[in-house]
Amino acid sequence: MKFSKINNFDLIRLFAAIQVVIGHSVHHLGVELVLYDYFLRYFPGVPIFFFVSGYLISSAYKRSPDIRSYAFNRIVRIYPALLVCLLVTLAFVLFNQQIDFSLLALSKWLVAQATVGQFYNPDFLRGYGVGVINGSLWTIPVELQFYILAPLIYLFVERFKANSKWFILLVLISFVVVNQVYGLYFTTVEHRGVINKLFGVTFLPFVYYFILGVIVQTYSEQVISWVKGRFVTFLLLHLVLANVMEVSGFITYGSYLTPILVVTLSLLVISAAYSMPSLSEKMLNRNDISYGVYIYHMLWVNFVIDLDLSSIYKFSLVIVLTLLSGILSWRLIERPSLSFKRKAFAENKV
Predict the structure, then answer these.
(1) Are 29 and 311 in contact (CB under 8 A)?
(2) Residue 284 · residue 10 · CB < 8 Å
(3) Residues 148-162: pLDDT tens digits?
(4) d(C-alpha 261, C-alpha 274), whole Å
(5) What is the pLDDT of residues 321-349, one digit of tens each?
(6) Could you tell me the CA-to-CA distances from 126 to 30, 118, 120 in Å, in that order?
(7) What is the full DSSP assignment across 185-196?
(8) How far is residue 242's CA from residue 239's CA, in Å, rounded to a whole number?
(9) Closest by CA position to 86, among listed 105, 126, 114
(10) What pTM did the predictor assign?
(11) Residue 136 carries which DSSP code?
(12) 59-65: long-range contacts (C-beta < 8 A, 24 or more apart)?
């Protein structure tokens, strides 16, 4: 069975990014949103991103397993927009007279942000805004680790899917346990030491989302045939189960939500991707602004947090500025970079 390449993943990623924006705004700006409290928080953006990444990256590698082109494509997708975001962040730092820093401290921070240490937040930024100038970028090094591991994970799943499905399941469950133990016991204040923090920006607590995406992609024809056209069914299933689990004391939101909800959320994502599959193209016209929305939003949260405005006005300002940043990032940086990627490898084939 063949399925069309037309899908709603651009729209799903944008939803995930906006969910993160709203969640951080609720937390840091004190805005009260019924829509978030009773609906959006049950669809955590980071697990969605990691699952979708596993699904799409493994599919891309399956179509073109050349390591050189694979690595180049991943770099071009991540770094051009990220480096421009860093320049914007640097402007925030330089033009804020309340931020005091040495040239050495600034240089260390810049090197970390421009490479693989986006989680690093120096002392001179602790007094600005929420205390971390762009804390959402902790997911970038995790995602980069996924990219490195993706060919190995894909080959592992392909190798054992025929005769050793239980072994794949055992490995997946092992990483589920790592996620749950770390989330329950090692993210609390008394356990927030340097080693635990560093462990939290490795692939280990989150790789099961990515592996689950790879597994679903491996069996995509069967999964899609089962969930396609049943979006409302899986939406209601996830919401009902989330409320039942929450009443029972389980974690139902964030990056460490209870595994059964990860399963229903993943099925919901695939159902959303292939039910009314042209919806994303009609709404977004192939403009994938989700990455820009994600990497810029905390800059604007930090910018508005001390303004003499009500929380709802601050929130509205964050939404407008974040969407504008995402649009500009896509049109001026990301889309041209992706065009260069296609052009570069087209020329190499001549």
Answers:
(1) yes
(2) yes
(3) 999 999 988 888 887
(4) 20
(5) 999 999 999 999 999 999 876 555 554 44
(6) 20, 15, 11
(7) HSSSGGG--HHH
(8) 5
(9) 114
(10) 0.94
(11) G
(12) 59/217, 59/220, 61/150, 61/151, 61/154, 62/154, 62/217, 65/151
